[in-house]
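wait is this the right file?? whatever heres the structure
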């Protein structure tokens, strides 16, 4: 996501007591993190700009490692929702969202 948004999200997650292993700006970087770190969960924007698709990262993490994702996006289309649902997401948040919505989505067991 945009650097400022990514850092704001990192701060929200850390203030909730979550450890943020990495902030990746491309799909390739995010997949490398999945393979190297094996995080408990991912928080992904669908639109990584020229860096690829967060949906591809979510699919990779779920199919190869069983890692579920919380999807955040300002561009939730019906087609995207159809691709997200089979990945058993932790939640789907439309941007902008409040910190409480983030907290509720992450309160589910991973």
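ok assuming it is, sequence goes like this
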């Amino acid at each position: 996501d945009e650097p400022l948004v990514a850092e704001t999200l990192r701060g929200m997650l850390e203030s909730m007591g979550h450890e943020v292993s990495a902030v990746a700006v491309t799909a390739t970087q995010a997949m490398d993190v999945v393979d190297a770190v094996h995080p408990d969960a991912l928080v992904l924007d669908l639109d990584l700009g020229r860096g690829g698709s967060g949906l591809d990262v979510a699919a990779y993490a779920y199919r190869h490692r069983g890692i579920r994702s919380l999807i955040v996006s300002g561009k939730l289309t019906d087609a995207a929702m159809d691709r997200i649902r089979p990945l058993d997401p932790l939640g789907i948040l439309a941007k902008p969202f409040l910190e409480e919505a983030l907290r509720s989505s992450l309160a589910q067991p991973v």
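Residues 3-15 form the longest helix (13 residues). so i think its the right one actually
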